[in-house]
Every structure is written in C-alpha cells, then in structure tokens.
Amino acid sequence: MLELVPLNFRVTGVDFPYGNGEVSGVRIRFNVTDSIGEINSSGRVSATMEEYATNSDLTALAGLARQKFIERLEFDDVTERAD
User: Fold this and answer.
1) Where does the source fall among the domains of life (predicted)?
2) Global pTM?
3) Cα–Cα distance for residue pair 71/77, rounded to 1 Å
C-alpha cells in the first residue's frame, strides 16, 4: 500500500515586481519536498499585496504559497478530465 507522508513547503524568496515606479504584486518562491525523497518541486506563485500583507510571516506565507500551488494543480486536473 502506498505510504502517504506530509509535504514540507518552504518559502525560498519573495520578489516584488514593479512597473512605472510602483510595485505591481508579489511573487513567492517556494520549494516542496517529502521526507522519503520522492517529491521535490520548486516554483513561484503570484499574490496580491493585500495577500502578502495579511500573510507576511514565513509560516503564513508558506501556507499561502501551498494554497495557490494546490489550486493550480486542481485546475489542471479538472482541465485534463474535460478533454
């Protein structure tokens, strides 16, 4: 039987893209691994300044990145089933 282990989601950086002299959003860089070495992924997700302000400590920011990552995975899964 497949052993399920928790994923460790870590924030590795935060970028603030800007244009015309103003910050236009937030990009959260992350790394996710599992304890048995089967999953190792990294990437970045976009967030609004409001989301960043309410989730600015690392634990909350990792939770926000995790939530946005899962939303993308579920979106792709639904799209593939529709084809």
Assistant:
1) Bacteria
2) 0.80
3) 10
CA neighbor of 62 nearest in space, from 17, 25, 23, 13: 13
> Residue 37 has what DSSP assignment?
S
Where helices occur in 13-57 by DSSP H, the ranges are 49-54
Our CA angle for 26, 79, 12, nearest 5°, is: 25
CB 55 within 8 A of CB 63: yes
Q: pLDDT at position 83, please?
A: 54
The model's pLDDT over 15-36, given as tens digits with 9 standing for 90+, comes to: 999 888 899 899 999 999 999 9
62: which residues sit within 8 A by CB, 6+ positions away?
A: 9, 10, 11, 30
Sign for the CA dihedral angle at 21, 48, 72, 29 comes to: positive
Could you give the CA distance from residue 46 to residue 52 in angstroms, rounded to a whole number?
10
Residue 66 DSSP SS3: helix
